[in-house]
Design a protein that fits this description.
Shape: globular
Helix content: 40-55%
Number of domains: 4
Strand content: 5-15%
Strand order of the largest sheet: 12-11-15-14-13-16-17
Number of helices: 25
Number of strands: 17
Largest sheet: 7 strands, mixed
Structural class: alpha+beta
């Protein structure tokens, strides 16, 4: 054993001498240094220009810099280094016939083969260490000479850095072993590099097709950039690192024996070598199979929602309510930034709305016997909800994808309506791609959504694309009534993929639209679609379906109606058809709000004050058109409307119109701090009673713009946003 160790160390020393002029270690150092250096230069330039960035959720500044460097490092620079270094180290001996020469020396082939592999790992370690060390040094230097934003934490996360470094090194074992084996077997310098580059690019090319090769060795590095914090359960390693170790063992075993015996047949088929190879492959393959096998979280005996809140605001209550009728399921008090609720009632598995006081709302997917832990952060206008527990994969923020199809644009602009095949092929293909994307959902721990979620989302995707198809059919009938077409088999498959009686989908508006379109497909009367909808719903049997469709259609019709008499008629005719009391109550509340805030009604009185304490009410603006923007400092969409609103105020400064920003922050101090950055062309006000203001004007979401006439009467209680292209056109119709 002692002689083998001496032999191995002697061979490593020999290899170090041979590689001195190769520049591999210098290249490793340069690659590790490059990204931290670029980041440092960018930050210095940023500080010198004096640019400011809006504060957000507190993050560790060291780790933020590291994660910013990880994506380019693992997607390009680090794999390129491993590919080049493996080919270069092997090529030194291919070129000088060193492989044959070494076999004449009193050195084992094991020492020869693995000494070079150790050099490759040393090269990897230099690159990784350089990345980590210089990330730390550059951030430390930046913090010494420049003021770092208050939302950046400057405690050095040593454990997090070590975890990332170790994970990078473990995955590099696999990639280096594969590339080294290729480089030893192929005497050409360039071909192993070409093969390595192709292997490296395959995941990037397939990602556009939503094909995720989570088993693929060259894909495993990407997981570190995507999940720099690693395992969701607090462990250092994920399944990616386990796979890397297994792949490295297999690659080294095959590569070494192939090198040792020169010929593949001799290496693995003679004597008992085939049995050894099969044993290695069987054991490793079994472990790989179970490592790659997707996992699902098991249901619990109780339904529990609990969590923790981190915020620069005081959050006292978390409200959970049904998204259909806004029925409150729970009002959970927040004590010491923590909350917990155990549900005793039966809950359908569906999306529910979480409301954190009056700040923000988030959707959460859960149901009976789910135990979910929430980590919610709210700082400034930035917020983030992390979900763990039995529904972790269903609620992963990265998985809340939006489908994209160009056929929505074609339909909106009435393009190619004469070409039915174009729409049938395109809609079906985009639907199929979206299903692939759905089936690719998994967490860092290889946990996939349960079947109820996958089935539901599959139906909803089908509905979305069927609605595009229905839109095409209506437009086609209108524009080309005398031009028939044949529905192909793919579209028939899509049309038959969604049931028309699925109560689990009633919370989804796309599904309701789909059902309504199906109900009126044979109604060819020359009347409005609204009349057709109501007539079809009236004929339905009593039950949840009828109630849900009536709720949707009544709410839409009440919203669209401009006259109180029309709303009265709708309520008189259809409200009694709803059997569910909570739906009736919701419609009556909407009806009262619409009537109270309808065009021509007197605007509710308010009392507000400016930054100097001067009081204002409706009479203060008599004789002027008034537009009021309801906003808060924590509201991201409000911030995005700010510059547009400012420009409009300047544009109309010589017109008889008053632009008002009405702040509804819980804390007055947040308002005072925020308006320091606002222009003087807008009157900044704050209500004496925010609750009374919200109730009077039915403010349940912001930003909200209300337009009043010179007499203090409502023109529009939900006016278009200033960023809208039609803002000026609509506003000018009311200006003298």
């Amino acid at each position: 054993m002692k002689n083998r160790y001496k032999d191995f160390t002697k061979t490593i020393k020999t290899e170090l001498i041979k590689k001195k002029r190769s520049g591999i270690f210098s290249l490793s150092f340069a690659i590790g240094l490059l990204l931290p250096l670029i980041g440092f230069i960018v930050k210095i330039n940023f500080h010198l220009k004096g640019e400011e960035v809006a504060k957000g959720i507190p993050v560790n500044y060291y780790f933020e810099h590291l994660t910013n460097s990880l994506s380019p490092f693992v997607f390009f620079f680090f794999p390129v280094l491993m590919i080049y270094a493996a080919s270069k180290i092997a090529q030194i001996d291919h070129k000088n016939k060193g492989w044959h020469l070494m076999e004449t020396l009193p050195t084992s082939k094991f020492s020869v083969y693995f000494s070079k592999y150790i050099l490759l790992l040393t090269s990897n370690l230099i690159a990784i260490s350089t990345l980590l060390i210089f990330t730390f040094l550059f951030v430390f230097l930046e913090s010494l000479f420049f003021e770092i934003a208050s939302d950046k934490l400057l405690s050095f996360p040593l454990i997090d850095f070590l975890e990332v470094g170790l994970r990078l090194f473990l995955v590099s074992l696999c990639v280096s072993a594969l590339q080294y084996g290729l480089s030893v077997l192929i005497s050409s310098f360039i071909w192993p590099i070409i093969i390595g580059f192709i292997a490296m690019l395959i995941p990037l090319m397939l990602s556009d097709l939503y094909i995720v090769l989570n088993w693929y060795p060259y894909q495993l590095l990407h997981h570190i950039a995507k999940y720099p914090k690693g395992n969701d359960f607090g462990y250092w390693f994920t399944y990616s690192e386990v796979l890397s170790l297994l792949y490295a063992i297999i690659s080294l075993y095959i590569g070494y024996n192939w090198y040792r015996f020169k010929v593949f047949f001799t290496a693995f088929y003679k004597n008992k070598r085939l049995l050894k190879l099969l044993g290695v492959l069987l054991i490793s393959g079994t472990v790989i199979h179970f490592t790659l096998k997707p996992k699902q979280q098991e249901l619990k005996s109780k339904t529990i929602i609990k969590g923790e809140i981190s915020s620069d605001k005081e959050v006292n209550t978390v409200i959970i309510f049904d998204i259909i009728a806004s029925d409150t399921l729970a009002k959970i008090p927040v004590v010491n930034n923590q909350f917990r609720q155990e549900f005793t009632q039966n809950l359908n598995t569906d999306y529910y709305t979480l409301q954190f006081d009056n700040y923000t709302r988030k959707l959460l997917y859960f149901g009976q016997n789910d135990s979910v832990y929430l980590d919610y952060k709210l700082f400034g206008t930035k917020d983030k909800l992390a979900v763990k527990g039995t529904r972790v994969s269903e609620n992963i923020q990265e998985n809340s994808f939006r489908t994209y199809t160009s056929y929505r644009y074609y339909l909106e602009n009435n393009l190619k309506i004469d070409d039915a095949d174009f729409y049938m092929e395109g809609i079906y293909d985009d639907w199929h791609k979206s299903l692939k994307k759905l089936n690719a959902i998994r967490t860092v721990d290889n946990i996939i959504p349960r079947s109820d979620y996958r089935e539901r989302q599959t139906k909803l995707l089908s509905i979305e694309f069927l609605n595009y198809w229905n839109s095409f059919k209506k437009k086609r009938q209108t524009l080309y009534p005398d031009k028939p077409y044949v529905v192909n088999d793919n579209m028939k498959k899509l049309e038959n993929s969604v049931p028309l009686n699925d109560e689990t989908l009633l919370s989804n508006n796309n599904y309701l639209n789909y059902i309504l379109e199906d109900l009126i497909k044979d109604d060819h009367r020359e009347v409005s679609e609204s009349e057709k909808y109501f007539a079809a719903i009236e004929k339905m049997d009593e039950g949840l379906f009828k109630d849900r469709l009536l709720l949707r259609q009544l709410n839409n019709s009440l919203s669209e109606a401009e006259l109180v008499s029309v709303r009265d008629s709708l309520i008189d005719t259809y409200l009694h058809l709803i059997s569910k009391k909570s739906y009736k109550d919701l419609i009556l509340t909407k009806y009262q709000d619409y009537n109270r805030l309808s065009k021509g009604a007197s605007a509710p009185e308010f009392l507000a004050y400016d930054t100097h304490g001067k009081k204002y009410n409706l009479d203060s603006f008599k004789g002027k058109i008034v537009i009021i923007d309801y906003w808060a400092s924590w509201c991201g969409p409000c911030k995005r409307e700010d510059p547009f609103y400012e420009r409009k105020a300047l544009m109309y400064k010589n017109k008889p119109i008053q632009f008002i920003s009405m702040n509804i922050d819980v804390k007055k101090e947040d308002w005072l701090v925020d308006i320091n950055n606002k222009g003087k062309s807008i009157l900044q006000l704050r209500p004496e009673s925010i609750k009374q203001m919200n109730d009077a004007y039915a403010i349940n979401s912001i930003p909200r713009f209300v337009l009043l006439d010179q007499e203090g009467k409502i023109i529009n209680s939900d006016f278009v946003r200033p960023s809208s292209k039609v803002f000026d056109e609509l506003l000018n119709t009311y200006l003298p």
